[in-house]
From TrEMBL:
<dbReference type="GO" id="GO:0020037">
    <property type="term" value="F:heme binding"/>
</dbReference>
<dbReference type="GO" id="GO:0016705">
    <property type="term" value="F:oxidoreductase activity, acting on paired donors, with incorporation or reduction of molecular oxygen"/>
</dbReference>
<dbReference type="InterPro" id="IPR002397">
    <property type="entry name" value="Cyt_P450_B"/>
</dbReference>
<keyword id="KW-0479">Metal-binding</keyword>
<protein>
    <submittedName>
        <fullName>Cytochrome P450 hydroxylase</fullName>
    </submittedName>
</protein>
<keyword id="KW-0503">Monooxygenase</keyword>
<keyword id="KW-0349">Heme</keyword>
<dbReference type="GO" id="GO:0005506">
    <property type="term" value="F:iron ion binding"/>
</dbReference>
<dbReference type="GO" id="GO:0004497">
    <property type="term" value="F:monooxygenase activity"/>
</dbReference>
<dbReference type="InterPro" id="IPR017972">
    <property type="entry name" value="Cyt_P450_CS"/>
</dbReference>
<keyword id="KW-0560">Oxidoreductase</keyword>
<dbReference type="Pfam" id="PF00067">
    <property type="entry name" value="p450"/>
</dbReference>
<dbReference type="InterPro" id="IPR036396">
    <property type="entry name" value="Cyt_P450_sf"/>
</dbReference>
<keyword id="KW-0408">Iron</keyword>
<comment type="similarity">
    <text>Belongs to the cytochrome P450 family.</text>
</comment>
<dbReference type="InterPro" id="IPR001128">
    <property type="entry name" value="Cyt_P450"/>
</dbReference>
Amino acid sequence: MTVLGPGTQADLLSPEAVADPYPLLAELREHDPVHWSERYRSWFVTRYADVDAALRDPRFSSDRISPYRRARLDGPDADPGVRAAFGVLEDWMVFKDPPDHTRLRKLLSRAFTPRAVERMRPRIAEIADGLLADLGPEADLIGEYAYPLTSSVVAELLGVPRADRSRFKDWSDRITGLVFGGMGDPDRHADGADGMAELTAYLGALVQQHERDPADDLLTALIRARDAGDALSHDEVVATGVLLLFAGHETTTNLIGNGILALLRHPAEAPDAPGTVEELLRWDGPAKTIARLMATDVELGGRTLGRGERVFLCPAAANRDPAVFPDPDRLDVSRRPGRQLGFGIGLHYCLGAPLARLEASIAIPAALHRFPQLRLTEDPLSWHPVLLSRGLLRLPVVTT
Ligand code: HEM
């Protein structure tokens, strides 16, 4: 294997690295832990100690939408639809720094409580069982199980009527281009912007309906959430609804897909041990990288990360750092849990972590227990060719 030095080109989107990023991430972590990529005009940070510290450091800013909007979308030539779509993203707490982030997070935390999540437990099991019962002898566990499960759960939690849920997949797929896509592809932006416009119009009407006719769901709780007299505006409730629908199922689908795959390949590991979900998040979790923008110059690992430069902090590399996890490439569900960075850490630590853990702890063993003969039918498998997340396009299996 080539030893990477400063200036050598590492490409996390090469076909080999998309299929299995861990050898390249290990090489970076060992030989060039704060790596400048000319190809992506970005830094890649791979050691646990550095990723952990950077995620807690306000100089690594989460506000990466408004600088782009100011530079590219405020001019007279900019597409108004794309500008409006980025306006919704700008209202997402995940793209904000304090004090705006603090305010939005407090209000969402009032509504999205551990109690609201725990109440979903029986429904998650019921939805999982229903989907598994419908599978034929050959099935795709992403398209026919993980995706419909996680999108139904978050839609139901929010209070989206069942009849409308099928439309969310299309909207969400199109928005993915805006959120995960490179910042520079105008066609993907235009299509993503149309999807965002349709989804926000739909949710805007649903919020109005909930304002008139409150229900026992998260959308109503968001409308009612108060902190010291402060509340979310109508647009903020809509944007937060979009964020939850989006954040709530793409990533969890990937955790369920990656998790079932890992356990199919390691049949000796128990699907329902207390530490299984945590170890699956560590070993092959959905968060490959987390992006930040440098608010100021920072020295890290002997390199200077310049103000305005983009940084990819890599939980996928940190979670296999031998300085923290002994024998890190081994999947071991009996490992002492804790410390994995798959939900981030610090101010932006994933607000949906309890829901994601609950869904995965039900869905993964449910599939493996119901179909003890479950086998893969495709190898090599196809993975999403993106920097930020790690997930399968399909998980084709035979069930009998
Ligand atoms: C396995 C599934 C999941 C993974 C791996 C995951 C991962 C993450 C990560 C890494 C962050 C931090 C981003 C950053 O620091 O910039 C985050 C934030 C967030 N996640 Fe999750 N997530 C998952 C599921 C969910 C679910 C189910 C929901 C809600 C329904 C959710 C809602 C959020 C929200 C609202 C934030 C923003 C928090 C903030 O900015 O303060 N996530 N997630």
